[in-house]
Specification:
Layout (H helix, E strand, L loop, with lengths): L4 H11 L3 H10 L4 H10 L15 E8 L5 E9 L2 H4 L2 H17 L4 H6 L1 E2 L2 E2 H12 L4 E9 L3 E7 L4 E7 L4 H14 L11 H17 L4 H19 L14 H5 L4 E8 L11 H8 L3
Antiparallel strand pairs: 1-2, 2-5, 3-4, 6-7, 7-8
């Protein structure tokens, strides 16, 4: 099958492998991006795939904690350009919606869209905003936490990344440090028990094939895999990660007696592919060229 230059480019960006290696990987796997990533890793050409999806949509991630500190919300609202994301009307809509979520606690997006703010359904407010601003506005996702512990939020780069973390307690500074860690290091889970079983098995299989590809005897492959899995845990489990502000400590070290109960991390537009526009072709078409 024909492999597109766009797919080769994306695979290079996600793995850091060379162009020809990426093209071969896609050819060998029938153009399947995830299988191509695994193929490169198994061959030892790419150490790991970048976990976060490409940021391919504009808008903003917002966070909110109620005055009593017991309810927290993380919300992503999308639009078409970063210019609109900084528009006062867009930000005002986002603030209204996030405060409504904290108060009404809708179960999902459908329930949220049926909710009423200032006498209008949320879905209608979004439609009105689309007409007023002149770009498509959409509420993509949200999460609500209720706790008897301590909630902390962190917003990075004006809404490009947002974090909501629920802890047993601790100071404001500790909460912020943990939230910033999550934003920067993008952990998969709080601890080993929270790592998805299918993700773990997938990683083991990749590492097993990688070891065999290196020519290691089968009798020691399993020991090698377990050693590498321990390294994997240190990369994806929050409490085992190296603390970004002090490389001599892990997150567990800075927590003291406190515990992280759960967290949510949204990266703006992750997993959404934004339509690429060839402006030269567009202008030529409009000019009849």
């Amino acid at each position: 099958m024909a492999i597109s230059a766009k797919d080769v480019k994306e695979l290079r960006e996600r793995t850091g492998a060379g162009m020809m290696d990426c093209k071969k990987a896609l050819t060998e796997t029938g153009g399947d991006m995830q299988k191509a990533i695994d193929w490169l890793r198994e061959k030892g050409i790419a150490k790991a795939a970048k976990k976060a999806g490409r940021t391919a949509a504009d808008g903003a991630v917002a966070a909110f904690v109620s005055k009593d500190g017991k309810t927290g919300v993380l919300l992503e609202v999308n639009c078409e350009t970063d210019f609109t994301a900084n528009n006062e009307n867009f930000r005002a809509l986002e603030q209204k919606v996030i405060e409504y979520i904290a108060e009404a606690k809708p179960a999902d997006l459908d329930a949220l869209n049926e909710g009423v703010i200032d006498g209008k359904k949320v879905a209608d407010l979004v439609t009105e905003a689309t007409a007023t601003i002149g770009e498509k506005i959409s509420i993509r996702r949200f999460v609500t936490y209720e706790t008897s512990g301590k909630l902390t939020t962190y917003i990075h780069m004006g809404g490009k990344i947002g974090v909501l973390v629920d802890m047993t307690g601790g100071t404001d500074e500790l909460g912020k440090d943990v939230a910033m860690q999550i934003a920067a290091a993008n952990p998969m889970a709080v601890d080993r028990a929270g790592v998805d079983a299918s993700e773990l098995e997938h990683e083991k299989e990749v590492l097993r094939k990688q070891a065999l590809e290196e020519g290691k005897p089968e009798k020691i492959v399993e020991k090698m895999v377990m050693g590498r899995i321990n390294k994997f845990y240190k990369e994806v489990c929050l409490i085992e990660q190296i603390f970004v502000k002090d490389s001599e400590k892990t997150v567990k070290d800075i927590l003291g007696g406190e515990k992280v109960l759960r967290f949510a991390r949204y990266q703006l537009g992750e997993g959404i592919e934004k339509k690429e526009t060839d402006f030269a072709a567009e202008v030529a078409a409009q000019a009849g060229m």
